[in-house]
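The material for today's practical consists of a large collection of protein records. Read left to right, the backbone structure tokens trace the chain's path through space. An example says more than a description, so a record of this kind follows:
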Amino acid sequence: MAVKRRKLGNPLALAVMATLWQKPMHPYEIAQTLRRQGKDTSTKINYGSLYTVVQNLEKHGFVEVTGVEQQGNRPERTVYGLTDAGREELTEWLSDLMAVPVKEYPIFETALSVMGVLHPDDAVRLLEERLSTLKVQLAGGRGALEKLYETLPRLFLVETEYQLHMLQAQAAWVRGFLEEIREGTLPGVDLWRRYHDTGELPEEFTEPL
């Protein structure tokens, strides 16, 4: 099952619609709500482009103007709400993302795919540094999550749980991979080291890595 191609593919559009699902808001309130609810930890949010996202949602009929607010001498603020089409799009888009795994391209995978450019000793040093950082992030994340459990239902923290599980899985993999390099049990590590020590490129390295 493939994910349907959507009129708007920016995850920020999904976050905006989910925020307006709570109630109609003006763009500044949307931004404040996203920040207050911690959505900037799970979605890459460019607050400068949020107004453009709202305009695009309106263009496609997913949101509509529901009113205008004005407080004191401040400029008027246009309030937007979800349309029926927007609610349908939000539900369908979210359902696709929940049900259908898609190939993503984390930058760490890109680095691993060309890691042979580095000397094995340098790779070990850098991965050790990464592992230390992951340990700090995990400790801090677990502490923060425990605090959040005291004030918020778990339902609103599942993305943070998932992030921590992914960090934990990454740390476990890096730890095991480091051990293989250090002990020389990683297939191809001798060829990798020989190339950097002698400058002679083994035939095996001319094949796709």
